[in-house]
Amino acid sequence: MVGVDITLEQMSAFLANLKIGEHGRAMIIDENGRLVAYPDLNRSFKRVGNQLQPAALDELGDPVLTRAFNRFRIEGEGHRQLEVEGERYISAASSLQSIVGRDWSILTVALEADFVGFVANNNRRALMMSLVIVGLTSLLAALLVVQGLRADRNAQLVLDRQHQLEVQSQAFSELASQAALFDPEDEASLTKLMEIACGAVGVRRVSLWTSKNGGKELVCDDCYDRESEGHTQGVHLARDDLSPVFEVLEKGAELAVRKADDHPTTAELHRSYLHPFGCEALLAVPIIHQGTCVGSIWFEDERRAEDWSPETVTFARAIAAMLALRLTADVRAAEQVTAAPLAAPLAALHQPNGQPNGTSASESRVAPRQAMRNTVLAADRASGFMERLAARGLDQDRIGVQVFAGTTVLVVQLTDG
Description:
The protein is α+β, with helices and mostly antiparallel strands. The chain has 10 helices and 14 strands. It starts with 7 loop residues before the first helix and ends in an 18-residue tail after the last helix.
């Protein structure tokens, strides 16, 4: 057996240097709870008179140590958990009697966080990393969803436009079957055109307006309402009240607005005309004849979620071009009707019995009507010729020629010899 003398000062120094977590402490106490060794040697003793006596653990004023010692006295040796002032502690008590031969015990107390704090830190780091991963995954999923929705929306848009083009192509086919489409006297063909155009675009109303009184007013020749399935005519719009609309159309520009009440050009038109009929959107395309606006075709609809599509505007321009041929035939026929009665008296001066050019009175009376029919026929032939060119992928601008409707041309081919 080897004996070693260890002073209390050395024991206290050893306990002071003993590292038990961040805030852990160790001490040696006797069976009465008095300090034998404590990390702070000055607190291990108390002065009683002229003598130094071991201090009791309770006299340190540390509630954690007091609680740990009380549990030790009641429960004996072992490990246990304490909770003091909201903090969790771990205490351990072991007897030193077998080692030192005295009823001494070593008592250690430390914060639970000192031993499991790294676990909590790791958990926090893992939680933060998990949140970052979840965030990145959610962002990636959102991007994929948005991309998928965009692709679906684009695909649906393509299908909608394809359907729209098919409907408009069908509309052109129906219009091509209307032989009297360009006859200004055939009102049935005009009403049919308005109904076909309204169904092809899918709007509520389609109206045809012609310029009257030198451009001072627009008069509705026909308006088709898809809900009521009826036609109306005769509405007058004065230039003095709607000068912005007149100015845009006279410049040959389309007027395409989704919310007419918010547009400065159509605000007054919305108040006086569109709103009473339950319409919010307007697509107005001018009808041009020899550089002059002679009318316009209006597509009127309820509130629209999107702007007018380019396909719809192109279709409206095509309808306006057809109506221009119709109005052109009307103007030319009117000019011939006006010129015929003026020419007849002059020719009669040189004919016997007052008959011009040897014609009868009945023939002179039907001349204006025949002139109008000839003009309509010429317009039909010109329109058919242009349609055949378009079917071959050619138009007037690409072939670089000028088409003169109603002009007779003699072509003579001479062979060598």
